[in-house]
Amino acid sequence: MHPRRLGRARYDHAMLRRYRLTVRYDGSEFHGWQKQERPDGEALRTAQGVLESAVSRAVRQPVVLIGASRTDAGVHALGQVAAFNADTTIPVERLHHAVNRYLPDDIAVVEASEAPAEFDPITWAVRKAYEYTIHNASVKPVFERHRVYHCWHTLDAAAMHDAARRIVGEHDFASFANTHHGRSSTVRTVFHCTVRRSGERVIIDICGSGFLYHMVRIIAGTLVEVGRGAMSPDDVSRILAARDRTQAGPTLDAAGLRLMWIQYATEEARAAGAAPSGALHGDPRLAVDDGAIDA
């Protein structure tokens, strides 16, 4: 083995540093975020797998990449957060460029930074936000079919917004979770949930402490039922209280969903056991969850 390569292969674990990446991707051609294999052992194309391979090539050593949110197949992200350890001489301000050299066109690293050695993108998260976009027109969106959900029924966005207000707060969201959510508790806090219309688009914005499997897509499906008159805004309160998945609306397609941003508590706030307003890391305008195959 070449001496230089030998040196890189025997990197000192004591010199490893923690890095945080902000990542965006078009989920259309990915089998979700998390690495997976077919029954025959062949690896599926996932965002985590593609990114982990690119990072390993860039830093010239194997890495283990951990993501904040295991987005489902077809879900997009503007601000997924991932972390890994490495011993590299690449300046942190150039790290995202180095990784992007090895990435395909449907995924990119937006930003790279050093993080505390204990940084966990899953457990350190305090707020996450999603956006669900509905193309509300009689003609299907041919060129954007992988990025929006098509609903030809005319939707009442005002009624949907009224219904969305019932979602806000700490609730048991069992009615809005896939029955195979795999969580010990279905109680979550939603900080805001709004619905707005922009031309032929109806956009649902939701921010919470964490989301259950398919939770956002089921909330979106329920709000669409309200928008087309099949349910009333008051029905949402009844559905929440029922804690019964069969009472809520359908799970809408993954295509309309985007993981928008994620915020983290500062080290000081974590040490104090709280994350007060203003003590958060992460720009909500960047466009990211609690580690479940959420939303």
Report the end-to-end length measured between terminal Cα atoms.
47 Å
Helix/strand structural class: alpha+beta
Highest CATH level, the class of the largest domain: Alpha Beta
CA gyration radius, whole angstroms: 20 Å
Using the 3D structure, state the CATH architecture of the largest domain. Answer: 2-Layer Sandwich
Order of helices and strands: HEHEEHEEEHEEEHHEHE
Number of domains as seen in the coordinates: 2
What is the third-level CATH name, the topology of the largest domain?
A: Alpha-Beta Plaits
Could you name the CATH homologous superfamily of the largest domain? Pseudouridine synthase I, catalytic domain, C-terminal subdomain
Describe the biggest sheet?
11 strands, mixed
